[in-house]
Design brief:
Structural class: alpha+beta
Strand order of the largest sheet: 3-5-4
CATH architecture of one domain: Orthogonal Bundle
Helix content: 25-40%
Order of helices and strands: EEEHHEEH
CATH topology of one domain: Multidrug-efflux Transporter Regulator, Chain: A, Domain 2
Length: 84
């Protein structure tokens, strides 16, 4: 009999995990535009302005515009450095 995952589950640097309801959920590697904008806390318009300014890099997968999670983190880190 297998036991349910616990909060002490191993976490790989490249694969962040979230334990919820006894299940393991991986953080997505990429986000579609709406989800990425929500994650940054900005509107779609602001999201696309960041892309147009060259401050945020997107690419296409299966015809959909996506942005990497690491790219979102980079943009936030850059904004924090500028604010300091």
């Amino acid at each position: 009999m297998q036991s349910a995952p616990t909060a002490q589950a191993k976490q790989d640097k490249g694969s962040p995990i979230i334990l919820r309801d006894g299940e393991v959920h991986f953080t997505p590697l990429v986000h579609q535009v709406d989800a990425a904008a929500r994650r940054l806390g900005v509107s779609r318009r602001t999201f696309y302005a960041l892309v147009k300014e060259g401050r945020l890099h997107t690419f296409r997968i299966g015809g959909r515009v996506v942005v990497a999670e690491t790219e979102l983190q980079r943009v936030v880190a850059e904004a924090m450095r500028k604010a300091a």
